[in-house]
Write a structure and sequence with these properties.
single chain; mainly alpha; 3 helices
């Protein structure tokens, strides 16, 4: 039961950090999740609370999607910034040649 509660807390931490875009907190929750799962494996834990594991897996998948969305958004913003810089440089170069 305590392990299921720990998995639920980690799942909530993963979701909340992903929604806030708090990548440091997300990394910490991900590391804690990995540690919990390694500990379970080391002691030979069986499936245990399958529902809690499923919820944790869903929270992790949600966090992965949010990270991918945020990375894609950052890429789009960087591309737009690069385009604007190129336009400014082109405008400045055209002004110098006049």
């Amino acid at each position: 039961m305590a392990e299921a509660q720990a998995m639920d807390r980690l799942g909530a931490a993963l979701r909340q950090a992903a929604e806030r875009g708090d990548w440091d907190a997300l990394a910490a929750a991900d590391a804690a999740t990995a540690a919990l799962l390694r500990e379970r494996q080391a002691r030979g834990a069986e499936a245990g609370d399958a529902a809690a594991l499923a919820r944790l897996r869903a929270a992790h998948a949600h966090a992965q999607r949010r990270c991918a969305e945020a990375a894609a958004d950052a890429g789009r913003r960087l591309l737009e910034l690069s385009r604007r810089q190129d336009a400014v440089r082109g405008y400045a170069a055209a002004g110098e040649g006049a």
